[in-house]
Amino acid sequence: MSCLEVSKEGKFKEEAEEVTLDGSVDWHGRPAIRAKSGRWVAGTIILLNQGLATLAFFGVGVNLVLFLTRVLGQDNADAANNVSKWTGTVYLFSLVGAFLSDSYWGRYKTCAIFQGIFVLGLVFLSLSSYLSLLRPKGCGSELLHCGKHSSLEMGMFYLSIYLIALGNGGYQPNIATFGADQFDEEHSKEGYSKVAFFSYFYLALNLGSLFSNTILGYFEDEGIWALGFWVSAGSAFAALVLFLVGTPRYRHFKPCGNPLSRFCQVLVAAWRKLGVQMTSNGEDLYVVDEEESSTNSNNRKIILHTHGFKFLDRAAYISSRDLDDKKGGFYNPWRLCPITQVEEVKCILRLLPIWLCTIIYSVVFTQMASLFVEQGAAMKTTIYHFRIPPASMSSFDILSVAVFIFFYRRVIDPLVGKLKKTKSKGLTELQRMGIGLVIAVMAMVSAGIVECYRLKYAKHGTSSLSIFWQVPQYALVGASEVFMYVGQLEFFNAQTPERVKELWKCSLYDFNLTRELCE
């Protein structure tokens, strides 16, 4: 028995001291110990953080146009224009956050700093609304609009909402990747957990937006703006505290350098060597430099040479001038690039067509924000004496997302894995994205059928057809999101080179922000 106990103790000790295989490090910069860092402890903290931060942001963003018209006295055109500018600014700030994360700060520091700015903006908005903007008391509802405001009061308002844009824009593109960093993709069990994380991440985002679209949306629609903003500020503060509490458990990857300059270096170097003659076997290509090799353990993986986009291979061609430079201990990165750097650019070019296809999917959300709401407004929206706001029907979309995420992970994924009889579980990312597009088409067909019946029962501009006939089209849109958007997150996280991962995530964040504001 004593020998068995010693054997077990040694095994547990070995597992406790096992380091991750993907090169991640802990808070002190040491190789991350698997049992003491990351995994679902850190992942759950980040999921809760995402849900609370989403609630806070959309608690402001969803009804911002109503605040501008009812409280600040702007007309509909000016209010819509200002909200569009604000949304566009969030997009731009997402690029800033991604650039700083990739180049200098890393994901953890970027998330922490921008979340602090986010909380500051929400506190400023809550204070300015409570102390000066909501005057006379009780104004801001549909029946009672507020009076005029001074330039200082307007300046404080715009400062607060653009601080919110800066904080959320810089934080959001990084948090999903930082959450995925908590799972070692080189480990079989953690690799599968990493795939599951993206589904739960999207679920957390939807649950946060569900609360902001319903409860906070109701408060703000009734003119209780200050309470809604304070709830958003409290939620953002709780998200920040929760994020900081998890600091000892997080796994980190050090910044990989400026991704934009690396991309441009390949293009410039290839252009400079357009006239050179290269061998077909690739023996004259620059594989890797000493610095790249020494830092490869920090998740900077060497990418093997491929034969596509051959014109870019010229950037890695070693000319006589490059040989002379290397003998002197220096080479010009704008004339010679390692083949891994060239392959990173090739990866981006190969991903572009797939990314462009996903843009088409956003058309469905445009219809959900406009056509679906207009259709619902022309239907019977009352049950007994209770009126259902047409825009609130998007709650069925969010509920559908929650249901289908669990259904896919618990039913479809294991079933497909058994049928395929392979080590990889479930459908591939591209297969899911394709299924998502098909379901999106079904949603629009459903909306068209409902419209035909609405017109059939229409009298004097309204219809006796109940608004609940819209539930199937909203549910189908939600199901399509589970396949399309979650598959998109997983695909681009797996296929994008590490050095440009955050910048690429900006495009996904911009798509998702448009989706949520549409709801």
TrEMBL record:
One of its GO terms (molecular function) is transmembrane transporter activity. Its main location: membrane. SUPFAM superfamilies: MFS general substrate transporter. It holds the Pfam family PTR2. GO terms for cellular component: membrane. Keywords: Membrane, Transmembrane, Transmembrane helix. It is found in: Membrane. It comes from the Eukaryota. It is a multi-pass membrane protein. Belongs to the major facilitator superfamily. Proton-dependent oligopeptide transporter (POT/PTR) (TC 2.A.17) family. This is Uncharacterized protein.
